[in-house]
Structures are given as C-alpha cells and as structure tokens.
Amino acid sequence: KHQRIVFSGIQPTGSPHLGNFLGALDNWAKLQQKDSVTYYSVVDLHAITLPQDPKVLRQSKHDMAAALLACGVDPKQSALFEQSKVRGHSELAWIFNCITPVGWLGRMTQWKSKIEKSHTSHAQALLETSTSAGTASLKMGLFDYPVLQAADILIYKATHVPIGDDQIQHLELCRDIATLFNNNTKSKYFTKPEAISPPSTKRIMSLRDPSAKMSKSDPSDFSRINLFDEPKVIQQKISKAMTDGHKGISFDTENRPGVSNLINIYAAVTNKSVDDALKDMNGLHNSQQLKQAVSDAVISRIHPIQSEYVKLQADPSYVQQVLKEGAAKAQVTADETMEQVYKLMGL
Ligand code: ADP
Ligand code: NA
C-alpha cells in the first residue's frame, strides 16, 4: 500500500488569482484524500527573495492562509503553515546549498529570464558596465530559491508535488539534489518526488496578453481576475479581455489565443472539456456573448469561496490558530528528517 505525501506552496505576495485557483489551489483541496498526507505552505521565505514591507507581508500571509482555507484546504486533513515557522526548511536548504553546484542554478530558465528583465530595466546602466552588473544587483536568495524549494519538498519526503509547467525544471533540480545527497552520503535517504501537472485547460492566460500566463506579478490589474474581485469587477475585466476580429466563436489557441483562453476559463470553472464547453456555446455568436457567458460562469463558481473568505476574515484568531497547529504538525516530520540528515552529513 502506497501512501502519498504531497507538498505544495504558494507565495503570500498579492491576491490569489483565477489561474492560481484553477491551476493549483482547487487541486490542493482535491488531493486531500484518506491515503494521502498533505502539507500546504504559505512560503514566506520565498517571498523575501524580493523586498517586502514587514507589515504588509504579515497581513498578506494571513490573507493567503484565509484564502487557502476558503478554497477548501481542510486543517483536519492537511498541515497548513507558514514556511518560516518550520525551521527545517532553511536548515535543509543550507545543507543542499553546500552540495549543489552553482552551474545547476545558472541553468534555470526562470533565473535567466530574471537576468534578462533586470538587463532591460537597467539597460542604461549596463551600457557602460559589463553584463554581470544586472546579475550583481539581483539577490542571492532569488538565484538560490530553487534549492529552498527542493528543501521544502524533501523535508517531508514528499512523493507528489502539484506544480504548473513553469516549475517542472525546478522539480527536476529537486530530484537531482535528492540523488546528489544520496550519492554524497552513500545512502538512499531521499526518494525522488513526482510532479502532478494540471490539464492544459487549467493553464489560464492573461486577459490582456494571452501569450503570457495570468500572473500576480503582471503590473496590469486588468490582466487577471483576482479570486476576491467583486462580480462587477470580474464582469468589467472580462468584457475588456483581448479577443480578435474573427467571426463567431471557435477554439484555436494559435490564431485565436484570446478567445481560446476565454473558452478555457469557461471549461475550467465548469469542470468541462473544451468540446463540452463549445457545445454550451452553440447558441452564442460573438465575443460579447462569449464574455457574458464566461463572466457568469466565473462569478457563480467563485461565489461560495468568496463568502467563505468573508467569514474567515471575520475571525482572524481562528486562522492564526490553524497556522500554529499546522506548523506544529509539520515540525514533527521536519525535525525527524533533519536529525537523519545531520547524522548522515556527520554534523
Ligand atoms: P504567480 O505567477 O501568480 O505569482 P505563483 O508562481 O505564485 O503564481 O504560482 C502559484 C501556483 O499557481 C503554482 O502552482 C502555479 O503553477 C499556479 N499558477 C500560477 N499562475 C497560473 C496560471 N496562469 N494558470 C494556472 N496555474 C497557475
Ligand atoms: Na511567482
């Protein structure tokens, strides 16, 4: 009998959006099953790889925890906790830092794109200096965070990690680090975790630029639907979503990315295949009508989550208690792992 151990984390920066919900959080709730142990973390140590205001960060962590509970994370079934409250995450990351070659991290495409972005934003400065100037201003933690992610996962000996495509390379790194640790310590201590990837209909693109994924870090608020946007705002955002000049409604991600994204959103919130979603749209003739249908479907899907969130926000001490108990639960496993890891390393 195989027991599934699941770990996943979400950064507490910004409001969760529809992409986070459909691509990740909804699945977190579904993964809470009898034969599974589930660890869900608000990953504040990852958040500080970029500058944060302490007051804002503290509140954002609370809000994200409330959001996770509203999305169906059940504290009776899962350990829901703040990453920084379980010390083992940082401790194991340090051990991994001491065995992981710098080159492995330099290969990470997310890092490379961050360097490129920093080059663009500091283009002027870089005209006069070497290309390494952009890298020099980026923080060690931002370079190194995939190692912390490996620690997040391996400290619970997670067997399954729900992730989006954007994180596949980091999970690969985690698997490599597990192997490296085993080889270095002549042990079989860590087992390699598997990815659980959401179906493509659950990958939600930006409403303004359907070639980019919907993201918290997009500066335009009209690019995303936040989970706690009011119905009126949701309607507005969807009505301004980028579509195209083609007639009618058809699913064609290459030539009609905007329309296809809306159809995908509809399919995802109604738990239907794209084909079945298109059947629902038989009577619709233009993107205006499509937008109305998508907007209605989104609003009715997230309405119960929004009501639950309001209730949870009225009881902050409950949320804090959940986080405290979650950390205590996670800590037991984390401590056991660290004890073994220290022993294997001769510490
Ligand atoms: P963001 O880019 O908004 O900061 P995160 O990187 O914090 O999102 O991702 C949190 C979780 O949500 C991850 O599991 C990620 O794969 C998932 N996710 C993020 N954006 C999307 C999206 N647009 N569609 C589907 N899933 C997404
Ligand atoms: Na992110």
Automatic annotation (TrEMBL):
UniProt GO BP: mitochondrial tryptophanyl-tRNA aminoacylation
Record's subcellular location: Mitochondrion matrix
Main location: mitochondrion
Pfam families: tRNA-synt_1b (PF00579)
InterPro entries the UniProt entry points to: aa-tRNA-synth_I_CS, aa-tRNA-synth_Ic, Rossmann-like_a/b/a_fold, Trp-tRNA-ligase, Trp-tRNA-ligase_bac-type, Trp-tRNA_synthetase
GO MF assignments: ATP binding; tryptophan-tRNA ligase activity
Record bears the keyword ATP-binding: yes
Catalytic activity reported: tRNA(Trp) + L-tryptophan + ATP = L-tryptophyl-tRNA(Trp) + AMP + diphosphate + H(+)
GO CC terms, sorted: mitochondrial matrix
UniProt entry keywords in alphabetical sequence: Aminoacyl-tRNA synthetase, ATP-binding, Ligase, Nucleotide-binding, Protein biosynthesis
Annotated CDD domains: TrpRS_core
Coiled-coil annotated residue ranges, if any: none
Principal EC category: ligase
Signal peptide interval: none
Top-level division of the source organism's lineage: Eukaryota
EC number(s) per entry: 6.1.1.2
UniProt entry tagged with the keyword Metal-binding: no
Assigned protein family: Belongs to the class-I aminoacyl-tRNA synthetase family.
HAMAP family for the chain: Trp_tRNA_synth_B
Designated name of the protein: Tryptophan--tRNA ligase, mitochondrial
Organism: Absidia repens
